[in-house]
Design brief:
The protein has 3 helices and 10 strands; from the N terminus they run βαββαβββαββββ. By secondary structure, it is α+β, with helices and mostly antiparallel strands. The chain starts with a strand and ends with a strand. It binds adenosine-2'-monophosphate.
Amino acid sequence: MAETRRLFFALELPEEAKKQIIQWRATQFPEDTGRPVAAANLHLTLAFLGDISAEKQKALSQLAGRIRQNGFTLTIDDAGQWLRSNVVWIGPRHAPLGLIQLANMLRSQAARNGCYQSPQPFHPHITLYRNTPRAVSIPQPNFRWQFKVDEFALYESVYKQGRTRYLEHQRWTLSN
Ligand code: 2AM
């Protein structure tokens, strides 16, 4: 069988934002909340591609490289839990148009190339905990992390020795 890789397009977070998120998380949630996502793995997924061939990766990378749009400012000022997927997340209360446009474009390119896309609308989020065993009380979002987004990247999810790592394959700058 041809080799495949588990790939997704995502936004990386600035180091400073990651630090603040980790500090906030440490002070707000009990230890048994779930499996905390490592600081290095904090990201905002734009489009999940699944396990795909090198050929499909190339085609989708080419299409991603043709996206012409400006960067945008992202404000992370909301938090919640999804019981269906057992995750605690943070994200924007109001997603900027640029973020929606970028994700929708990548998701439709993925769908047209045979990568299953959830029929649910795009809910931009950064997962903080996975495998949350029960409903947790979500603290009031007493934060407002804001940063400029002018790049996006293609990542590979690698699971090895019980750990997930995200390897960056390619990065693109957002400009008109
Ligand atoms: P999540 O954080 O909400 O779990 C890599 O797995 C990234 O792709 C994660 O951010 C994950 O979102 C996202 N993703 C979206 N759909 C997925 C799926 N069907 N399987 C695994 N990850 C998915």
